[in-house]
# Entry
Amino acid sequence: MLCCSAGMSTSMLVKKMREAAAELDQDVEIDAHGAGQFDEMVKEFDVVLLGPR
# Structure
């Protein structure tokens, strides 16, 4: 999960990460969420990357 202030600035990075995972034939879930959703969504992911505000 990528998390930033609104979840929007990380959307381009999510797209690139998904493309890279597909090229490596990796079955992963990569999503972006805003800081307001952090508490609700964090339990769904093994790794969280935090973006700037």
